[in-house]
Design goal:
Blueprint: H1 2-27, E1 37-43, E2 47-50, E3 75-79, E4 83-90, E5 97-99, E6 106-109, E7 113-118, E8 121-125, E9 130-132, E10 138-140, E11 162-165, E12 170-174, E13 182-186, E14 189-191, E15 199-203, E16 206-209, E17 216-217, E18 221-224, E19 226-228, H2 234-269
Antiparallel strand pairs: 1-4, 2-3, 5-19, 6-18, 7-8, 7-14, 9-10, 11-12, 12-13, 14-17, 15-16
Helix pairs in contact: 1-2
């Protein structure tokens, strides 16, 4: 019964963490470039159960009228001992591309990240909602400078009449009195190879490369005047949230049942006459 309490309680803890993960996804359903998290659980090593006394020849319960199974004692089966969250995986499926019409909004179609300068160093993001600051610097909505391919902040000339951004992040500007567009910079657009754990979420819609991760040119393309939406499916996550609540509720009832049986074993079955 004690083991049953532990197994049920571990299931409740697992579903609590899964619920937190889904709640975070739903909270970021409208966050540009957000990638949903998936809580992956694993089961503890199950126990193999055998019938009591089957290994004792003096009390072999499989003996009947001089018939015995000998060394082939029957097995009852396996008993689960609980579960836990093995990993919070990231679903990197492409989010929908939505048109905004803002020339400084950019979305990545395919693999890749933009580089931004933060207080902790260079970090990466899929959120391409940029704007030109009062000093002419290209920044994200948190005021962090957007970096070019050389790792330096991008500055847009004050007299730039219009901005055009190419498929590889090339930034062109047209100025009064000059014909056509002149390239003024290029967005940092990098990826970190096929290893999904080379770069992980840091928070605030930023990604942090892990030790040994080397940025390389991205295979994705940039689309101007667009933003990538979150890849969270609100309907499916709400259904999963309800299902998690039911599983948690079942675990709570199992704990109450185990506690009631333990109470009877201690206070009634074990009572001396």
């Amino acid at each position: 019964m004690i083991r049953g309490l532990y197994a049920a309680a571990s299931g409740m803890i697992t579903e609590t963490k899964r619920t937190d993960t889904i709640a975070n996804n739903l909270a970021n359903a409208d966050t540009n470039g957000f990638k949903r998290d998936v809580a992956v659980n694993k089961e503890f090593e199950p126990m193999l159960l055998r019938r009591i006394h089957d290994s004792d020849p003096r009390m072999e319960v499989t003996s009947f009228k001089q018939f015995s199974l000998g060394s082939k004692h029957p097995k009852v089966g396996t008993l689960g001992t609980g579960a836990c969250i093995a990993e919070i995986a990231i679903d990197r499926e492409q989010g929908a591309i939505k048109t905004t019409g803002n020339p400084l909004d950019v979305a990545i179609s395919g693999e890749g990240f933009f580089g931004v300068q933060t207080d902790q160093g260079v970090r990466y993001t899929r959120d391409g909602a940029f704007f030109r600051s009062s000093t002419g610097q290209l920044q994200n909505m948190k005021g962090q400078p957007v970096l070019n391919v050389q790792g330096r902040p991008i500055t847009i000339p004050e007299n730039a009449a219009s901005i055009s951004i190419g498929a590889k992040g090339e930034i062109y500007a047209s100025t009064p009195g000059e014909e056509g567009f002149q390239q003024i910079s290029q967005l940092m657009l990098v990826s970190f190879g096929p290893d999904r754990k080379a770069i992980l979420k840091q928070g605030d819609n930023l990604w942090n490369p892990q030790v040994g991760a080397v940025p390389q040119p991205a295979t994705g393309t940039v689309e101007q005047g667009c933003l990538e939406a979150s890849n969270v499916n609100v309907v499916s996550d709400m259904v999963e949230l309800i299902n998690n609540y039911r599983v948690y509720e079942a675990g709570a009832k199992a704990v109450v049942t185990q506690d009631t049986l333990l109470d009877k074993a201690v206070n009634e079955v074990g009572r001396l006459g």
